[in-house]
């Protein structure tokens, strides 16, 4: 009888808890449902079923956000279970929130990148740190590794690594082998970041390595971790969950090895290079380094290891894809490269500044394919956006991908038109921010664009390329946005007129 009474008490408590949760969700609906938004899939899960359905089909959820923006306007509500987000594509609010240091990155979304299925991933690194003081300390110490003077000194490495890609493409042109450009460029950008940031030569174009697959696995795991609270508890998903955990451990174990090797060299009196690895160590290396300090060093290692190659590789692959689809743009950018670079093998820093049309091409690529599509901030005070009162305490989601594809900001937005970024063209007003905006904007912006220009200029100088027919031009949302097909091309040596 006592056991039965205990069971009845437990059931009563569970019922009260369930009823309380229902009332909490209902109250949330009543508080925020004046904000426009799509109908919820269900009372409890909100729009989560829509996101999961798209994710399981390898679709691009950002296209759904774009569709909703066109239907519901520049500010609308999205429900994920009991949590409400506000998607904002209003330039004035974008400027107000992203340009100010007082609006912090939100805990909910960034906690999903802190760990993946229980394994620490990006942790409290430079991209994911929510605490402003912790972020500012890291950013201030990292800045010298991205100074203009230091970046100028990287031109030799950019040229050297890009030359390895040209040699590989030359072999493929001679053997008439099709080239999957995204995969090849991925190797180059990873080689660049490991060389200039960590002082390690991987030579991935000629050697196999577990790192590219590990990065891809972690990013894919992050997508599921964002969109499905119960993903890791489904036995069907356990093999993949274990792959993700193993990939996280590989990246962090590698980081620990490389950090310890550099530390030993520094303690032995060797003069370390002023690269990212040295800055990571300087950031926390003191006599009383705590275990959390050690973990944050690894957080930053993983952050730069991934961010330093993934988005640049995706941008370059999308750029090649669009040039293959737009022969008039291709001929124009080739003509500029021929005029500026000519037949010389290595580009100088000054050459990059003269490649104005190539710069426009790369910017237009990021407008259509913002490889890191968005960011978020926690806004505590009430705001009025586009005439709609938005209560405080919500997370605002900003997407450069969505804003850049809205015809209210860009005429004929699905047309690839580099002249949008001509020096004399009107500048986009807070609706184009592929590297985010304000104090939390991407530290590696100039690094990435220098590397992209060197690779593209050499490619255009040496080769003609044609997209293999029949491939898709769809976008794969794998944490970052990448071309689903891989951009498969036939490559031939350019024939210059005598």
Automatic annotation (TrEMBL):
Transmembrane segments: none
Record pathway: Steroid metabolism; cholesterol degradation; Lipid metabolism; C21-steroid hormone metabolism
Domain of life where this protein originates: Eukaryota
Topology term for the membrane: Single-pass membrane protein
Entry EC number(s): 1.14.14.25
One Gene Ontology term of the molecular function aspect: cholesterol 24-hydroxylase activity
Physiological role: P450 monooxygenase that plays a major role in cholesterol homeostasis in the brain. By promoting constant cholesterol elimination in neurons, may activate the mevalonate pathway and coordinate the synthesis of new cholesterol and nonsterol isoprenoids involved in synaptic activity and learning.
Protein name: Cholesterol 24-hydroxylase
Species of the source: Salarias fasciatus (Jewelled blenny)
Gene from which the chain derives: LOC115401760
């Amino acid at each position: 009888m006592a056991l039965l009474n205990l069971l009845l008490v437990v059931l009563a408590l569970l019922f009260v808890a369930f009823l309380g949760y229902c009332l909490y969700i209902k109250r949330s609906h009543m508080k925020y449902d004046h904000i426009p938004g799509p109908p919820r899939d269900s009372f409890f899960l909100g729009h989560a079923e829509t996101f999961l359905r798209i994710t399981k089909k390898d679709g691009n959820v950002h296209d759904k956000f774009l569709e909703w923006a066109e239907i519901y306007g520049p500010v609308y509500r999205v429900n994920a279970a009991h949590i409400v987000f506000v998607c904002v594509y209003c330039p004035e609010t974008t400027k107000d929130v992203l340009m100010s240091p007082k609006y912090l990155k939100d805990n909910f979304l960034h906690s999903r990148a802190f760990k993946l299925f229980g394994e620490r991933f990006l942790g409290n690194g430079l991209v994911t740190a929510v605490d402003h003081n912790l972020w500012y300390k890291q950013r201030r110490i990292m800045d010298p590794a991205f100074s203009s003077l230091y970046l100028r000194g990287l031109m030799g490495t950019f040229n050297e690594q890009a030359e390895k890609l040209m040699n590989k493409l030359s072999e493929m042109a001679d053997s008439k082998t099709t080239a999957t450009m995204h995969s090849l460029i991925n190797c180059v950008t990873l080689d660049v970041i490991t060389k200039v940031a960590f002082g390690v030569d991987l030579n991935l174009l000629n050697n196999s390595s577990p790192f590219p697959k590990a990065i891809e696995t972690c990013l894919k795991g992050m997508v599921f971790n964002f969109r499905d609270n119960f993903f890791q508890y489904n036995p069907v998903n356990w093999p993949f969950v274990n792959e993700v955990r193993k990939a996280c451990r590989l990246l962090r174990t590698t980081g620990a090895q490389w950090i310890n090797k550099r530390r030993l060299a520094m303690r032995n009196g060797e003069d370390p290079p002023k690269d990212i690895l040295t800055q990571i160590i300087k950031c926390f290396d003191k006599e009383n380094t705590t275990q959390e300090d050690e973990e944050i060093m690894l957080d930053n290692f993983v952050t730069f290891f991934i961010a330093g190659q993934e988005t640049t590789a995706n941008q370059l692959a999308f750029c090649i894809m669009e040039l293959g689809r737009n022969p008039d743009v291709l001929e124009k950018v080739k003509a500029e490269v021929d005029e500026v670079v000519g037949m010389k093998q290595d580009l100088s820093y000054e050459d990059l500044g003269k490649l104005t049309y190539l710069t426009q091409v790369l910017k237009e690529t990021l407008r259509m394919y913002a490889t890191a599509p968005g960011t978020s901030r926690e806004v505590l005070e009430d705001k009025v956006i586009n005439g709609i009162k938005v209560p405080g305490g919500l997370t605002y989601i900003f997407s450069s991908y969505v804003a850049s594809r809205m015809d209210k900001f860009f005429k004929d937005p699905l047309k690839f038109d580099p002249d949008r970024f001509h020096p004399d063209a009107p500048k986009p007003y807070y609706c184009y921010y592929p590297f985010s905006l304000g104090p939390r904007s991407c530290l590696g912006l100039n690094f990435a664009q220098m590397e992209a220009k060197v690779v593209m200029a050499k490619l255009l100088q040496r080769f003609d390329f044609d997209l293999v027919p029949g491939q898709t031009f769809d976008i794969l949302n794998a944490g970052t946005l990448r071309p689903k097909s891989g951009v498969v091309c036939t490559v031939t040596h350019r024939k210059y007129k005598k």
